[in-house]
Amino acid sequence: EPEVTQTPSHQVTQMGQEVILRCVPISNHLYFYWYRQILGQKVEFLVSFYNNEISEKSEIFDDQFSVERPDGSNFTLKIRSTKLEDSAMYFCASSGRQNYGYTFGSGTRLTVV
Amino acid sequence: DQQVKQNSPSLSVQEGRISILNCDYTNSMFDYFLWYKKYPAEGPTFLISISSIKDKNEDGRFTVFLNKSAKHLSLHIVPSQPGDSAVYFCAASGVSSNTGKLIFGQGTTLQVKP
User: Sign (positive/negative) of CA torsion B38, B39, B45, B51?
Assistant: First the structure.
């Protein structure tokens, strides 16, 4: 069964450093998403991406965050200067069409120290 | 922002019995609802969905019921199996958002005892 692949599975970084979280969505999907889940809290929407541009972003997704689909297969989330409160599980997801059940990746656990 | 709420953090049922997981929402613009299951160290897995034009959708052991007037949905699992033990998230989306963004509830941890 097709799956969404995320790397790395765990990333530890120092506060203030840049991190790039990588995702390979399902190949024929058109809609891409990043969500995060802080430990013990709900899964929160960060950003949606369609047709090579951001279609919606949450208030969490401030200027420190950016997304890119550099080569037609990868979908990346960059955090420019990490803060302690960025520590969370980050999930990438993709969908073949809007308003349909997404396929999520297994997540990247980001720990900012 | 508590647009989607799952008021029961946990539920324990005996194998073979029915599991009922509940979810309430406040935003009347939501018109598509989904249930996801999540195991530790894995991403959420899509289970079943329902659009607001229906009040019931069934897929094998899983049935989702939607009561629009009460802004309430529930997931029934019959019969429950130990492998169903996981965290279950309710999520909602509005066609008006135009992006497929999902709003998740806090999750309910289901434990099915053998």
Answer: negative
A74-106 pLDDT, tens per residue?
Answer: 999 999 999 999 999 999 999 887 666 789 999
Identify whether A8 is preceded by a cis peptide bond (ω within 30 of 0). Answer: yes
- Interatomic CA distance for residues B2 and B111, integer angstroms: 25
Binary contact (A104, B106; C-beta < 8 A): no
Q: A7-16, A17-26, A71-80: lowest mean pLDDT where? A: A71-80
Between the alpha carbon of residue A63 and those of residues A81, B54, B78, B88, the distances in Å are 10, 40, 46, 32
Helix, coil or strand: residue B9: coil
B43/A55 Cβ within 8 A: no
**How are beta strands A108-112 and A10-13 bridged, if at all?**
parallel
What does residue B82 show for φ and ψ, rounded to 5 degrees? -55, -35
Token look-up 């613009």 returns B29
Tell if the CB–CB gap between B101 and A99 is shorter than 8 Å.
Answer: no
Helix ranges restricted to H, chain B: none
Q: What SS3 state is found at B62?
A: strand
Distance to chain A for B49, nearest Cα, Å: 7
* Residue-level pLDDT at B98: 67
- For chain B, helix, strand, coil in percent to 5 are 5, 55, 40
